[in-house]
Amino acid sequence: MHHDIALFSELCDVLFKSEIDEPVARPIPTDQLLKKIDLSLNTEGVIEDTLVQTLQTIIKSTPKTASKSFFNQLFGGRIGKATLGDLLAVMLNNSMYTYKVAGPQVGIEKEVIKNICNLANYPKHSDGTFAPGGSMSNMMALIMARDAKAPEVRTEGLTKKMTLYTSASSHYSISKNAALTGIGRDQVRLVNTNTKGEMLAQHLETLIQKDLEDGYQPFFVNATAGTTVLGAFDDIKTLSIICKKHKIWLHVDGAYCGGVIFSKTYKHLVDGLENTDSFSVNAHKMLGTPLSCSIIITQHKAQLHHSFSNDADYLYQTDGDDFNLGKTSLQCGRRNDALKIWTLWKSVGTNGLETIVNKQFEMAEIARNYIKNNSNYKLYSFDDAISICFNYKDITAKELCTALYENSELMVGFGSFKTDSFVRMVTINSLLEKEDVLNFFSRLEAFVAKNMLKIATS
Q1: Between helices 134-149 and 301-308, what is the axis angle to 10°?
Q2: Which segments of 225-293 are extended strands (E)?
Q3: Structural domains present in the chain
Q4: What CA–CA distance (Å, rounded) separates 448 from 437?
Q5: Is the model's pTM score more than 0.90?
Q6: Beta pairing partners, 253
Q7: How do residues 135-168 score in pLDDT, each as one tens digit?
Q8: CA gap 130, 289 in Å, rounded
């Protein structure tokens, strides 16, 4: 084992060097992957030298998400203390369903949940858990809402059409979860948005009223704190009034930007959070932990237990339910995702996490100002968003992003909102500095100038 740990350290050195030498890995076309790298699994094993050589090749060819050339997804960068926690979780290899097998790791998870509840201004009796990802956090919220509205569903199954509401700009997991939980995609109502992608409360009210008149049972509203494309925040205060009026569960999907709860400067973007029933946030996004680190909290601790507990004498043999976390989890066996956020939080404090969040908005402002001051760009995004959406000259976003990727220049994605398509640069990597943001634009411009004839224009 000690030998393999030493080997791991050597492979990390290969990775660190690769991130410097080739921050955007040269992509291997899918039809050539198995020809260029021997990924085969065979009857006999290989000698260690062959394994190490193959691993080195894999490392060099894998997209470098910690690179300062990676702006492609809603995560990025690598923070040392958070990575330390994740590596320790692997070595300890505890499952988080009982105190008997997880010991103090249960206390670590409970401390993180308690502090997230405090930051969300939830009352002391609130609770939560870690989920496999943001999509599953949203599913847990939907299930709790369904069970709260119609408790008989857990035993009898659905006997009435139940409807849920989410903005047209929300994450695709809402519709997917409706299908998985038996609600059905046809019962998902997409609420119109304004020009920023924020849910229109008046349209929500209209949809709910119509469903009530038609005999449906409205039960769940999903608000978003940071839409996937433009990074918009729904007006939680206004939505909560509507939900309270109709006795509908209000969930806030903060997977992308729920981390603003750590910032005194930007917490106003989720004003009214204390009036919601549940809230989810991904620490592997704004807070910069390794994937995955998804947290869901709720003001209704009893509902969390009722929706996800199941007696199992062979498993829950000691200690109270509060320390047997499997009774409030979607999963049974569950890896320890709490340790990585705890090691980071413990080392830098809440103030340090606030600095991490604020830095992302600072870098976004630098990017927006650059675009505003350059007539070759068109800006589509707005203040208080860490998604920077733009087009450069007359080049279509898809072809520009693809060309940058295929030529190992930059990794950046493209998106669309209503009739517009554009490049979506994300400043979520808190290790970025001003020069890295400006370097992104200079590299993009230099690439276009050199390869203009190779890129199709609109």
Answers
A1: 100
A2: 249-254, 278-282
A3: 2-60 (no CATH), 94-338 (3.40.640.10), 344-454 (3.90.1150.170)
A4: 17
A5: yes
A6: 224, 280
A7: 999 999 999 999 999 999 999 999 999 999 999 9
A8: 14
